[in-house]
Amino acid sequence: MFSKKDLQSLAEYQSQNGMVLSLYLNVDPREQTTDEYKLALRQMLKEVDGVAATADLEAVERYINLEYDWSGRGVALFSCAADDFWRAYKLAVPVESQVIVARKPHVTPLADLWDAYGRYAVLQVDREGARAFFFTMGELVETRGIMGESIKRHKQGGWGAEKLQRHEDEVAKSNLKEAVNFFTDFCEAFQPRWLVVAGTEPTLSQVMDLMPKALRDKVVGTFAAEMTANENEIRDRSLELLREAERKREVALVEAAFTAAAKGSNGVWRLDDTLGAAFEGRIQTLLVSRGFHAPGYRCRGCGYVTAHRLEECPFCGGEVAEIPDAVEVLISQVIEQGGRVEVIPNNERLKEAGVGALLRY
């Protein structure tokens, strides 16, 4: 199972003796067959034949043909045989197929997926009970349940029926309070970043009203579901909501960073200023336009990276060498420093700048 620790480890790694082959393969069974994905893999490996080491190409093919069980919807593979370095991750969420050969693992797609789907919980609830699910990158980690007092259905009418209905409503409200307390404890144990609530009306609205504000603020959406819905249905519907919430959140982040940069506040815009903020360890959230790459220059001594050619490092006087992709280095720096990375597609304002960031100070 892929974790934040795995992402940080990949971001920190740099090959000492060779190049790293980073390969992402979409294997979503809803889109194509296994044979079609294997054909796509062969075409991708042909693209880097002669650039990547033969041993790394063979390691990837061997894994896909002999070891991979074709579960999940995505695969991320990293190989550098010269360093005896190999990492393979099966993903429950789909990825965009691509292959990169560089000194460091290409972590941008994983950083993007982690930010959207890294840790989230779902509360599935009705008037009598509840189930809680904790997912990491779309993969179920833990599920727990609770049953409240049974609610009996009565058919008789008249004054007695009204009294029974009031009693049923009181029992249901008590059960929902118990369900919220149960989910609060569940979230304290697993610390999800985002929450989703599933159920039917009016139960959904009642549960949201009963939730403490700290939990309610993490809820990205709700959807209709009976308690008979299985784990796959809960996962798929929650992922849809998370994707939609991520799109809205990305727009808000870009606007916030642009406004902060324009005011000279805690924001920067464009590559060189963002690289400078990363060198100082000030980036809280890095924003990268999907597909944006740019060469840069890095000091061999202190690691300072800039978009401009320099004769020597302005900080330590060390030798400055050209690097093929300053953006990938920037992403790795931010992850190593504990910051967040948002890779954002189809945002015209961010496309123009390439990168930007919200700063810690």
Give a description of the structure.
The protein is of the alpha+beta class. It folds into three domains: 4-106, 2-Layer Sandwich (Translation, Eukaryotic Peptide Chain Release Factor Subunit 1, Chain A), CATH 3.30.960.10; 118-247, 2-Layer Sandwich (Nucleotidyltransferase, domain 5); 266-359, 2-Layer Sandwich (60s Ribosomal Protein L30, Chain: A). Helix content is 41%, strand content 25%. The chain is built from eleven helices and 16 strands. The protein has helices spanning 4-12, 34-47, 54-67, 108-117, 159-190, 203-210, 213-216, 231-262, 271-279, 326-336, 348-353; strands at residues 20-26, 74-80, 85-91, 98-102, 120-125, 129-136, 139-147, 194-199, 219-224, 267-269, 283-289, 296-299, 305-306, 320-323, 340-344, 355-359. Strands 7-6-5-8-9 form a five-stranded mixed sheet, with helices on both faces. Strands 3-2-1-4 form a four-stranded antiparallel sheet, with helices on one face. Helix 2 (34-47) runs antiparallel to helix 3 (54-67). The chain is globular. The protein starts with a helix and ends with a strand. 36% of the residues are buried. The model has no long low-confidence stretch (mean pLDDT 93).
Assign the CATH class of the largest domain. Answer: Alpha Beta
Low-confidence stretches: none
Q: Number of folding domains?
A: 3
Helix run count: 11
Q: What structural class do helix, strand and pairing data support?
A: alpha+beta
Give the overall shape.
globular
Query: What letter string, H or E per element, gives the SSE order?
Result: HEHHEEEHEEEHEHHEHEHEEEEHEHE
User: What name does the CATH topology of the largest domain carry?
Assistant: Nucleotidyltransferase, domain 5
Classify the beta-strand content into a percent band.
25-35%
- In the CATH classification, which architecture of the largest domain applies? 2-Layer Sandwich
